[in-house]
Amino acid sequence: MCSVKVVSAPTVIAHRGVPGSRLEHTADSYLLAIEQGADYIEPDLVVSRDGVLVVRHENELSDTTDVAKRPAFADRKTTKRVDGASVTGWFAEDFTVAELKSLGLRERFPALRRHNEDGAGEILTLDEVLDIAAAENTRRGRDEPRVGVCPETKHPTYFAENGIDIDGLLLARLEAWDLNHEDADFPVILQSMEPGNLRRLRARTPLPLIQLLEHAGAPYDLIAAADTRDYAFLASAPGLAFIAEYADGVGAHKSLVIGRDGNDRLSGPTSLVRDAHELGLAVHVWTLRDENRFLPAEMRIGQDAADHGDALAEYLAFYDAGVDGVFSDFTASAITARDRWERRSPSATGSPAPGA
Asked: Could you tell me the pTM of the whole model?
């Protein structure tokens, strides 16, 4: 297992870039995240028909592309079972990279983020995201902090059921970039919702691994294996001990770290951070966003769900709770809050976190 290091302040992970200001998973979004000070950029990975890792939050394409309006691809619409659920639409694994790049992109939350322009950018490959990080690190020089990449493999069991080894594809690209080792030119952290996926990766890479935790339900690989353990178990002290056998940290839904009461107000930290740290596990929390829709009731400003509330207060609450990193749709807000937190708590030394 990768060793952990003590960090002076929580890591800021640009969640799909800066989707609060640019379309998610686009080059512009990742570049803005780097400009605003992100420590890591985060691509979600699915697979194209020609076996290339491409960057989408899910393999079904209609929510974030204009594929449904493309007559040439009308016959590709189909229904599949993805992670045990019936899904109808158009799927990345049925399109070549060239076809995927021909699609126009759409805003995931059009009612909240009306300023994001549909059609801007194109679907990226993992190689293109690694190239963005590599170019920035070359520009910075060796003595400056490195920008890392934090990929998430999506639907690994589903892809395995369809004869696609997403782990192998990922490790092959990291090997090609000379990144599958601890002394690489810039840091890489690997993450997944599925324990089995991470346990297999543990045997094939020394890179830090993060077990992602949802606030409800269970990982699909455990469901498929008739294993009754769910995310609630994984977030418990015994579950975290299980995770510590193969991973270096957890990426937890924010409600698992600070709960909310019946009035949708923050109700105080749970034991998750303490329990994880006692096992040497880092804790990243997802996803912090500035809009009222996503904030606790006491931090909302105005009545419009799209308006920005007192997001800095939410960041500060999680920084105070001892998290080692945050996934944010608004990198600038995460950095501003971290700067304020460090000024307010200059003696804080942080807690264990994977990577550099």
From this structure: 0.94
